[in-house]
Amino acid sequence: MINQLEIPMYLEEALPEIAIELKTGKTNNAYEVMKSLIDFMYKNITMHNFKIVKRCFKLVDKLYNKGDRVVKNVIENVFVFSFTRMFLNYPDEKQQLLAIMPIT
């Protein structure tokens, strides 16, 4: 199981492009790390870089499936909650986002 302290390493290993955002936050707090991931995704949505956004979705899906209870809570309370904002802020991209979002 992946615990909250392993999230930054897991993300950096699977998605090297996020390293700058994670170092900028300089925290291992799982909630702050998830916020950095969301900000990274928003930035890539605005640039229409949906390949990276899709990779982010897959990573979060894996984290959720392999994570301990704290990791699952962070994803449920921060990441899933951000969908409302994501869809409101990017209405033109909503269909593309729904198409690449994992079912789980």
Write a structural description:
This protein has 104 residues and is mostly helical. Helices cover 72% and strands 0% of the residues. The chain contains seven helices and no strands. Helix 3 packs antiparallel against helix 4 and helix 4 packs antiparallel against helix 5. The protein is globular. It starts with 6 loop residues before the first helix and ends with a helix. 22% of the residues are buried. The model has no long low-confidence stretch (mean pLDDT 89).
Percent helix among the residues?
Answer: over 70%
End-to-end span in angstroms?
Answer: 18 Å
- In sequence order, what are the helices and strands, one letter per element? HHHHHHH
Give a short account of the largest sheet: none
Low-pLDDT runs of 5+ residues are none
Shape: globular
Keyword list:
0% strand; 72% helix; 104 residues
Can I get a quick summary?
Helix content is 72%, strand content 0%. The chain is an all-alpha fold and 104 residues long.
Question: What topology emerges from the helices and strands here?
Answer:
Elements: H1 7-14, H2 19-25, H3 30-46, H4 50-66, H5 69-79, H6 82-89, H7 94-100
Helix pairs in contact: 3-4, 3-5, 4-5
